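Supplementary Methods S3. Complex input for the acetoacetyl-coenzyme A-bound model.
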Amino acid sequence: MNFTPTEDQLAVQTTAREFATNEVLPKAAEIDREHRHPAELVKRMAELGFLGIAVPEEYGGSGLDHVSYALAMEEVSRACASTGVIMSVNNSLVCDPIYRFGSEAQKREWLTPLASGKLLGCFALSEPEAGSDAAAQKTTAEKQGDDWVINGTKNWITNGPVADVCVLFTMNDKAAGHKGITAFILPMKTKGVRVGQADDKLGIRGSKSSQIFLDDVRLSEAHMLGTVGGGFKVAMSTLDGGRIGIAAQALGIARAALEDSLAYAQQRRTFGKPIAQHQAIQFKLADMATEIDAARLLTLRAAYLKDAKQPYGKEAAMAKLFASDVANKAAREGIQIFGGNGYVTEYPMERHFRDAKITEIYEGTSEIQRLVIAGHLSKGG
Ligand code: CAA
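Predicted complex, serialized as structure tokens:
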């Protein structure tokens, strides 16, 4: 593993940092306060090539690697975790499975506009009664003539209210369990698709999520992604990659907590000196910085392995497990450093605290990451 970023990786990181600092950060508090989908920032991310970073250029992407993707995700999420997750869902959960499992025609029709940011995607796996237990799908897909007819409800679908296209998971054969799950590419304007009220959330309030109701939705065979019964593997392998994106998002939130804490501690004075000169605060800052570096190494290792086409599921789960914990600790300690000012919305720390929590829940809870890691260990991985 090479610790020196390539020229391309550095260029993406620099572009992402400038975009995040100059265009995203000034709006982050307002996006959170207003629960506003940052459409203008999504448009800018499309222009910068951030919505399909690791997709080959021939399919509308930037043709870069997953290390570049992780670096860019950290920068954008450092400024605004909501904008970060909009980016990660489109890259990891929508473009990636269409690239890996889609037919040539599907790549031309759907991947190209998604990776170039002309369309925005969502990923609908979770249901009211199937979150961690992803194989317990109740949404049905029934073959009727040449078409599939789909009925059911999806829950907490990030980008749901603003997406044009959905990578959708259905159960076509309940008796077959996870081997009865089939994936589809669903245009959100298809008759019978209804998007629920946007969820009213603790954090990442600029990221719109909702239920999606599917009522006799009719799709042709051309919309099936992968094979009949192959959907669970599409979902699981997609989430392996998604976890790199969420680890990088968590890293961005943790870095925001550290950088804001450091700046505050250098100007806030108690007992005759800046609080950054008190050992109690120095220890907190040192721990935050050390843990963030460790989380970054885990995240970049998983991305590097994905780029090297080596197994990376265990490493991605480790990265997400650790980075999400680091983000939550950093935000908690950040509030402590800010004291009363950490508890009010005038300062950014309470937003980091609220935003950090979701990284321990979506794309597999921390408990699920431990199950995935333990599963690999038991198989000698
Ligand atoms: N890649 C490919 N195949 C995989 C795989 C992977 N990573 N993991 C498992 N599989 C395959 C297995 O090989 C097995 O196949 P065979 O039957 O052919 O051997 C099959 O899938 C079933 O495997 P398991 O028995 O391990 O499956 P399980 O039902 O016990 O579930 C689980 C395993 C890890 C708990 C899984 O259900 C899981 O990851 N749950 C969490 C779901 C999740 O992350 N949801 C997030 C929703 S999306 C989201 O959050 C998006 C957002 O808003 C931002």
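The mean pLDDT is 98. Residues 122-229 form a domain with the Butyryl-CoA Dehydrogenase, subunit A; domain 2 fold (CATH 2.40.110.10).
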